[in-house]
Predict the 3D structure of the following.
Amino acid sequence: MSRLVRYRRELRDRWLAVRLGLAGRQHQYGEIVALRRFIAHFGIDCVIDVGANAGQYAQMLRRDVGFAGEIVSFEPNPDVFARLAETAQADSRWQTHHIALSERDGEATFNIMAADQFSSLNAPGEGLEPIFAERNRVERSVTVPCARLESAAKSIPAIAGARAILLKMDTQGHDALVLRGAGDVLDRTIGAQTELAVRPLYAGATDYRDMVALLAEAGFVPNAMFANNKGHFPLLVELDGLFVRADLTQGGNVPIV
């Protein structure tokens, strides 16, 4: 890497840190920097956004990461999906689907929590601290369409035509089942981003050690780790992990980008 390119990247990252700090989003700095490098280096052309909520992750990809490729978002909460679809409608390379992804096809019961970002196919765990018990409380349950990613992808041209996929999973305790249902989509998946629960908030949720092991079985190794919230100091609740296909790391050092 030339000195000029290095300086330009350093200035860009410093400006990002300032901008995020002013917006109260400084906890996202590590994630954005990691995604910028990952997407550029591996030529990601499609991001599958599982558990999109109102589109916050996709908007971050466009605004902060600079990703210009295809985004395919899945969100099962019907109320939140309406906001997601409205946000995405002006972006011709951003598709939205009202489906819960899991390890089977059919229908599923989806729990809508007091704070919609906690909504999940899983039930809340027991013994949660007051801050989580209040937010992660079932207000109502609805029946939603459910599919394996492998099944859903067959009718979505943006996924079918992708060469290098980043699979992002943020399903509140259900990521392991999304991974199990991915099937042959993983053949073109370069990276996977997932929640890693240090202190699981959902019944039956996979803890961070087991999720790392599941990804290893699927052929992925850690690329970067970062806290996915502002804290709950002094205890760590969750991490986001960015994983890369193991075969792409072989053969020594990779170029700095």
User: Anything to note?
Assistant: The radius of gyration is 18 Å.
